[in-house]
Amino acid sequence: MSAQVSTHLDEIPTARQEPAESTRPEAPPQGDRGGHISGESTQETFDLTPLEHQIIALTLEGCSGQERSSMVGISEEFLDAHLKTIYAKLGVSNEFELILFALYHGIAANYEVPEGSA
To answer: Domain containing 72: what range?
Structure first.
């Protein structure tokens, strides 16, 4: 009762199978990272309103929620609603991710925070 070993050449695969195509997105070419921390603006606007850009800029300046709402003339509750909309548009889930995303993509890089606001 020994196991039989096949010696037929037609049973041995001869063609090397190619690996399945990767579904990973390609990395951008070196040096082509949008506004990656350098502050360069990109062409992509992410469908943000001017008020949303201002809120992001104030967030990047380190302003508190109370300071941001006061500077743009809205309540803190309305600021929170705007932040939720911004998070949804950018695909982030919190303020930390928003800051990283904004720095990476150069969002609000050219927006100047009004004097006395930071």
So the answer is: 46-111
The total number of structural domains that make up the chain: 1
pLDDT at 3 over 50: yes
CB 84 within 8 A of CB 75: no
Cα dihedral 88, 34, 36, 94 in deg (nearest 10): 0
DSSP designation for 11: G
pLDDT at 70 over 70: yes
Q: Residue 83 CA to chain centroid, in angstroms? A: 15
The phi and psi torsions of 46 (rounded to 5 degrees) equal 60, 20
Q: Which two tokens stand for residue 117?
A: 């606001």
Q: What CATH number does residue 104 fall under?
A: 1.10.10.10
pLDDT tens, position by position, 7-24:
555 555 555 555 555 455
